[in-house]
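Assemble and predict.
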Amino acid sequence: MLGGPPNPEIRRTLKAAGLRSTRQRHALASVLLRHGNRHVTAETLHAEVRAEGVKVSLATVYNTLHSFTRAGLLRELMVESGPSYFDTNTTPHHHFLDQRTGVLTDIPNGRLRVTGIPSPPESGEIAGVEVIVRVHSGGPE
Amino acid sequence: MLGGPPNPEIRRTLKAAGLRSTRQRHALASVLLRHGNRHVTAETLHAEVRAEGVKVSLATVYNTLHSFTRAGLLRELMVESGPSYFDTNTTPHHHFLDQRTGVLTDIPNGRLRVTGIPSPPESGEIAGVEVIVRVHSGGPE
DNA sequence: GTGTTTGCAAAGTGTTTGCAATTTA
DNA sequence: TAAATTGCAAACACTTTGCAAACAC
């Protein structure tokens, strides 16, 4: 399903990000951007492209995830110990973290507000605010 | 400064937490609880007790940090890739993270509010809300 | 004395890196 | 063909673990 000819739209996306369109990057971008918002780790993404028959090394998956992040195509989330997550939703938003399953879910940018932030120490500027709402779901009955 | 006789208050704290008062745990607790709120990693704490002349292995520091966390004496923060931080302030509060220096600072429990959290997926219950305010400070002139 | 804790070294995870071979533009 | 990218294996940072010796109660 992925060995075919390059998709011109993905090629354009990579170009626009200043990245050469290689077979590996194309396959990764294609999987990442195929559905809506996703939270992947290097391992899960690697498994996914390989399952489609594309040969990519794990090191390349790491490199590519970072390139994509630098290019603004992804956002990196360091939520727990364990692997980093990469979020295909790069707009400002926050997350639910299910403590039992480890699953991350977007909190849609909407009603959630953080107010009353005091001014930062060291005369610094606020670069971003991240909210994690830890949830414990009741497990399967 | 730390090789002396055990401090009875620290012994009591450990006892109350259901932990035997060993030389190592006593030294670690003593350093941790000496000043106000602190953010330590296993490495920084290890260096600190050893600088006081107490011999403790790094493995024991890790074990002890987790015991203390389980006992409610510390709170673990996983803020970035890199090492875990342990916070001696176990009351609900949030943090500034200086992106340049990596330094964590408490946001005192006060005006900061998170409002408009939608109900969690999977009929889960909210177990906690964590806010990280990323700050970029202007570096030393 | 008995069960707990320690320290070491080894193993484990997740990630990065050096570098030769390959590929892209 | 020049510059970028890949893949491998080795290195890396942080953390956990197995187990014998040491220790607290």
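Chain A has a mean pLDDT of 92.
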